[in-house]
TrEMBL record:
UniProt keyword Acyltransferase present: no
UniProt-listed InterPro entries: WD40/YVTN_repeat-like_dom_sf
Signal sequence residues: 1-27
Record's keyword annotation contains Signal: yes
Coiled-coil stretches: none
SUPFAM superfamilies found in the cross-reference section: 3-carboxy-cis,cis-mucoante lactonizing enzyme
Transmembrane domains' residue ranges: 310-330
Name of the protein described by the UniProt record: WD40 repeat domain-containing protein
Gene3D superfamilies recorded: YVTN repeat-like/Quinoprotein amine dehydrogenase (2.130.10.10)
Ranges where the record places region Disordered: 276-308
Organism field: Streptomyces candidus
UniProt biased composition (Gly residues): 277-289
Biased composition annotated in UniProt, kind: Low complexity: 290-304
């Protein structure tokens, strides 16, 4: 069970980010959806399908080797995929679709504090036809070069196909790079390339130029360069509190970010990136066909909510309240994983 002291640390870190960084404005376009399938009670990952525009892949933490395809307009499940050829999942926390047309599922969670000797990544080709079916999946054994750890974010770069994992810890997290190609033979060692905030999910923009990392209380956008080694400082995305926040993905055209949460009939919010460059870029300013809008430069409160002294004060209260709700959710989740 995670202590209340840990939640205070998380709240303080999130509050510090709110008060220091200028949040990039994202507009709620009101075109989100609710996951209606009663079998999906702990949606822990979200990824836009490449083969079926408007469909999103998701999964529970621990209900078996199942992945669900959900229609982004109705919220109805259009297919449940059973992965054949993998062991019993322990804690599936993340999902991503690669440029090879395959779905990658990260069985990388460790509610026991980073004690598993190894974790797994599963991979299967996106079906051409969406219906309930069993598919063959590859299983990759993963270890970290600097020792076991808890993680909830897995991202496949949309141009290189390289797999990255974002870990989480009280003091922050790490971005880990996998080998150029995963292998089912032996162990795939992931090596740390950058420090990152506490991470519950992440997503690359479709053009691969931006990486968005989210936490329970917010999200940040990073310019992607040098394989993450030049990650630099992130830009805060003004997304507001959205429950036990577990997932994020870009739309296929990169003009919207979708944020999901755990729970029955969980809501997925679609936030339009106000003028993201090209096919992505939530945190950049300027650029071709639009860029992210960082809000007014005079320190006044933005319409997206929360910049300037008054906005920061309101946001601080929201963060504190959110931390209390988060603590309750983490207690439930940790006791379930014990």
């Amino acid at each position: 069970m995670r202590s209340s002291r840990t939640c205070v640390v998380l709240a303080a870190a999130a509050l510090g980010a709110v008060l220091v960084s200028a949040p990039v404005a994202l507009a709620d376009d009101g075109d989100g959806f609710t996951i209606k399938d009663p079998r999906i009670t702990e949606s822990s990952g979200l990824a836009a399908s490449r083969a079926h525009p408007g469909v999103y892949w998701t999964h529970n933490d621990q209900d078996g080797p199942y992945v669900y395809a959900v229609d982004g307009k109705s919220g109805e499940t259009v297919a449940r995929i059973t992965m054949r050829g993998v062991g019993k999942p322990r804690d599936m926390e993340a999902i991503s679709v690669g440029p090879d047309g395959a779905v990658y599922v990260g069985d990388i969670g460790d509610n026991r504090g980073g004690t598993w000797s190894h974790v797994w990544i599963y991979r299967f080709a996106e079906p051409k036809v969406l219906k309930d079916r069993t598919v063959d999946a590859a299983q990759y054994v993963v270890k970290y070069a600097d020792g076991a750890r808890d993680a909830e974010a897995l991202m496949v770069h949309p141009t290189t196909g390289r797999v990255y994992i974002g870990s989480k810890d009280q003091g922050g997290g790490g971005l880990y790079e996998g080998p150029a190609r995963l292998s089912t033979e032996g162990t795939n060692v992931f090596r740390k390339v950058a420090d990152v905030p506490w991470v519950t999910d992440g997503a690359f923009s479709p053009d691969g130029r931006e990486l968005v990392l989210r936490s329970y209380l917010g999200a940040e956008s990073f310019a992607w360069k040098d394989g993450g080694r030049g990650l630099g400082e992130g830009r805060s995305l003004n997304i507001g509190y959205r429950g036990q926040s577990e997932s994020v993905t870009f739309d296929l055209d990169g003009r919207s970010l979708l944020f999901g949460a755990e729970g029955e009939r969980s809501a997925v919010a679609r936030l339009a990136v106000q003028g993201a460059p090209g096919s992505g870029g939530a945190g950049s300013s300027g650029g071709a066909s639009g860029s992210a809008s960082p809000g007014p430069s005079d320190g006044s409160e933005s319409a997206a909510g929360g910049r300037g002294p008054a906005g920061n004060g309101v946001t601080a209260l929201v963060v504190i309240g959110a931390a209390v709700l988060l603590w309750a959710g983490l207690r439930r989740k940790r006791s379930r994983g014990a």
